[in-house]
């Protein structure tokens, strides 16, 4: 029980930051490109309460954690509402709005990695903070990679819709009402993890290591 509480505490802050900044980034990008829907609904904010979905952010991850002994976790936040027709150039701008969320997670992963470097450099040996920094990198890389999966309503699906020719984009976007269930099935079958998440996360870790290696060398 103590291990569970400690794990929850270690991951709580990274998860809250990852979902809050992710959703806010969509809202900021949408506003920048002309859609004020999220702003009017109070969703362009770093207040995590505005983005938490009681089922997707809290109940589902906890149930999955206990039912699989921590082997499998899945959750989601309340999506930021975006009216793509309000964007100045809807087909092009939707790519940037969708990309803003995963991009924010990758930036956060780098920030947590830098924090870990600072902790090591300053000889901070408190396990809790070290594990939290590592969790921050992991959580954000998972959010980054998973949301780029090319199936709507995930961000990667929206990006693909924006990149496809108009006729193909309209046809592909019809998958969206069923997309969540398709993705969940692919996750449970292990396809998303094996074919998409692991390879993309390996790339993510490699990029972060390349970026922070000069800093690590300078501190040695």
TrEMBL record:
GO cellular component, one term: plasma membrane
Localization annotation: Cell membrane
PANTHER family, A to Z: ZINC METALLOPROTEASE MJ0611-RELATED, ZINC METALLOPROTEASE YWHC-RELATED
GO terms (BP aspect): proteolysis
Source taxon at top rank: Bacteria
Protein name: Site-2 protease family protein
Positions of transmembrane segments: 55-74, 95-121, 133-154, 175-197
Keyword Metal-binding carried by entry: yes
Keyword Zinc set for record: yes
Keywords tagged on the record: Cell membrane, Hydrolase, Membrane, Metal-binding, Metalloprotease, Protease, Transmembrane, Transmembrane helix, Zinc
Membrane topology per record: Multi-pass membrane protein
UniProt similarity note: Belongs to the peptidase M50B family.
Pfam families: Peptidase_M50
Organism of derivation: Comamonas kerstersii
GO molecular function, one term: metallopeptidase activity
Cofactor: Zn(2+)
Domain Peptidase M50: 12-131, 136-189
